[in-house]
Specification:
Layout lengths: L6 H8 L6 H16 L2 E3 L4 E3 L1 H5 L5 H20 L3 H18 L4 H9 L1 H16 L5 E2 L2 E2 L4
Antiparallel strand pairs: 1-2, 3-4
Helix pairs in contact: 2-4, 2-7, 4-5, 4-7, 5-6, 5-7
Length: about 140
C-alpha cells in the first residue's frame, strides 16, 4: 500500500526541468506563486507567500528570500534579458532585501512590495515579445505563430 502523495510531491511532478524558455517560464511562475501567493489571509483576503512568512525569521529569512529572488534574476540572465531589465530586477530584489531586513517595517514592506511578482512581470513581457511560443492561457500553451 502506497502512502498518499503530499502536496510537495505533486508540485515536484509538475516542475519542468530544462533550459528552454517555456520550461523556465513555468518554473519561475511556480516559484513566484510559492513566494508571493501560496496562502490567503482569511481576514483581509490577501495572498501571502513564503517570502512574507520566511522573512519573519531575522537574518536567515532575509538571506533565503533574497537568494530565491536572485535565482529568478539569474534565470532571466540565462534567457538573455537586457542589462537594463536585469538591473531593474536586481534592484527590486536588493530593495526588498534591504528594507526587508528592518524588523517589523521590513515585514510590512515585503507584504506590500512583492519584488518577485514585479520581476516575473518583467520576465513575462520579455518572453511574450521574444519567445511568444511560451505563452500559456488556462494551462494550455498558446501557439502564436
Amino acid at each position: 500500500m502506497q502512502p498518499p502523495p503530499n502536496r510537495l510531491d505533486a508540485i515536484a511532478e509538475q516542475l519542468p526541468l530544462g533550459r528552454e524558455p517555456a520550461a523556465v517560464r513555468r518554473r519561475l511562475e511556480m516559484l513566484e506563486g510559492a513566494l508571493e501567493r501560496m496562502f490567503v489571509l482569511p481576514v483581509i483576503n490577501r495572498p501571502i507567500g513564503l517570502d512574507s512568512i520566511v522573512g519573519l525569521i531575522p537574518v536567515v529569512g532575509d538571506v533565503v528570500t533574497a537568494s530565491l529572488g536572485a535565482y529568478l534574476v539569474w534565470e532571466a540572465r540565462n534567457l538573455g534579458l537586457s542589462k537594463f531589465q536585469l538591473a531593474r530586477m536586481a534592484g527590486n530584489v536588493g530593495l526588498d532585501a534591504a528594507l526587508g531586513a528592518i524588523p517589523l517595517v521590513g515585514d510590512l514592506f515585503d507584504f506590500a512590495f512583492r519584488s518577485n511578482s514585479r520581476n516575473l512581470r518583467i520576465l513575462k513581457r520579455y518572453l511574450d515579445k521574444h519567445h511568444p511560443e511560451t505563452g500559456v492561457i488556462d494551462g494550455q500553451v498558446v501557439d502564436r505563430r
